Amino acid sequence: MLLTGSSSYALAADAIVDDVVIVESNYDWSGVYLGVFGGWAHSRTKATDITGTDFDGNTPGATRSMSDDGFVGGITAGYNFQNGSWVFGPEVELGWASNDKLEFAPDDGDEGLSTEYGFYGAITGRVGFAANRTLFYAKGGLALAQIENIAGDYDSGEPDPDDAAAGDELRAGWTIGAGVEHAITDRWSIKGEYLYADFGSKTYDTPENTDEPFKFEDTLHTVKIGLNYQF
């Protein structure tokens, strides 16, 4: 009787262990996913007065820099391929950055620098390592943003078309970052991510006087949280 009882107990224990193993099997990250994200955006603009007609009293090449903090939010979509613990695939994100700032020179209240962001997006590739339900990843690729830059003289708070260089267009650059994503259910996951984008330099002239160009260099840091649904 004891032997029979012990055997039954052992069989039951093995069944329980088998069930636990099934429950704790590795999470499958492969497939299509869609999500939303939001977070903090920190922009920085460096403006160079090429001819020296405005910044620092006729000094060619004089520069001024300005930073701004704002909000970034939008949607994301991608596809994961999985090979063992390695997860990789393309990802696209589209959104809006709220960064918008006008700053006047401390020594000249008519001399200003302005940057305004609008549409924001990125087309990247992700590669990561999955520890079951937690994915650690890096990403990089193309960054896009609608950026307006203005620098020079202002009259009554408005840029002077004769003395302020201005441009507003969709800019392309490169981006790189990293993040961590955790599957909270079989379909839903949450993530935290840092991304740096560099939009290079762009030279604009004054609208009505084409001999006072400024060069603008723009970068954007974002820290985001997101919620994804895996199909």
Strand arrangement across the biggest beta sheet: 1-2-3-5-6-7-8-9
Largest sheet: 8 strands, antiparallel, barrel
The shape, in one word, is: elongated
Q: Percent helix among the residues?
A: under 10%
> Which secondary-structure class do the elements indicate?
mainly beta
Structure description:
- With 231 residues, the protein is mostly beta strands.
- The protein has one helix and nine strands; from the N terminus they run αβββββββββ.
- Strands 1-2-3-5-6-7-8-9 form an eight-stranded antiparallel barrel.
- β2 (62-83) and β3 form a beta hairpin.
Tag the structure with descriptive keywords.
single chain; 231 residues; 8-stranded antiparallel beta barrel; 1 helix; disordered N terminus
Topology (SSEs and partners):
Layout: H1 2-23, E1 31-49, E2 62-83, E3 86-97, E4 100-105, E5 108-131, E6 134-155, E7 158-183, E8 188-204, E9 214-230
Antiparallel strand pairs: 1-2, 1-9, 2-3, 3-5, 4-5, 5-6, 6-7, 7-8, 8-9
